Amino acid sequence: MKIAPSILSADFANLQRDVALVEQHGADYIHIDVMDGQFVPNITFGANVVKALRPHTKLPLDVHLMVENPGRLINEFAEAGADIIGVHVEADIHIHRTIQLIKEKNVKAEVVLNPGTPIDTIQHVLSMVDQVLVMTVNPGFGGQIFIEEMLGKIRELSQLKAEKGYHFDIQVDGGIGPETAKRCKEAGANVFVAGSYIYDAEDPGQQISRLRKVLSE
Ligand code: DX5
Ligand code: ZN
């Protein structure tokens, strides 16, 4: 089980400090939410922030691209030091080609599903990807409520993975805390993004320990 703190809820004026903090407390990935103000209403940061953080952590940088036509940005994010790049199937009419592009760069490829998007839409790229992200909130903002119906989607994906013998990780993102993480784990998820649960707390390190505890039970 892997924990990926989302720096969307970190202090943007102290990103280096907030990344180091979760690394010291056993985080597995740093989740970086890139938003373009088009695919989602919010705007966050670009490849220059990935590049700036790269020398300050040994953890894999897990980049979640919430942008229209992500194919045009793969090169830039790969060069900046992303270890995993996730692209939304809804944002790209050439999803297969974009995943090929990510892999050509020797970066792990992830495909992402919005809550309203069914698994059928990604069935023909599942053999290519290293990770599938099942969004458990509508993307754009931290601190939203977990959407219960997504547990069924995680189960469905996990069954398909077992049937076909695929090896991708199943990541969940949105409204994750100990309770929801536990239920997502039972449904088949193994990578857990958490933003506000970790960074909005007095003691982010303790929050990671709490998550780790329920995920190891
Ligand atoms: C939402 C982002 C998430 C966000 C999750 O669009 O993809 O990564 O940071 O925030 P929480 O954990 O607060 O729901
Ligand atoms: Zn995210």
From TrEMBL:
Query: Care to name a GO molecular-function term for this sequence?
Result: metal ion binding
Q: Give the organism, scientific name.
A: Enterococcus alcedinis
Q: Its biological function?
A: Catalyzes the reversible epimerization of D-ribulose 5-phosphate to D-xylulose 5-phosphate.
Q: Which gene encodes it?
A: rpe
- Record's family? Belongs to the ribulose-phosphate 3-epimerase family.
PANTHER family tied to this protein: RIBULOSE-5-PHOSPHATE-3-EPIMERASE (PTHR11749)
Residues that hold substrate according to the record: 6, 64, 140-143, 173-175, 195-196
UniProt GO cellular component terms: cytoplasm
The identity of this protein, by name, is Ribulose-phosphate 3-epimerase
Lineage of producing organism:
Bacteria, Bacillati, Bacillota, Bacilli, Lactobacillales
Biological process (GO) annotations held by this record are: pentose catabolic process; pentose-phosphate shunt
Q: Report keywords, A-Z.
A: Carbohydrate metabolism, Cobalt, Isomerase, Manganese, Metal-binding, Zinc
Q: Annotated pathway, please?
A: Carbohydrate degradation
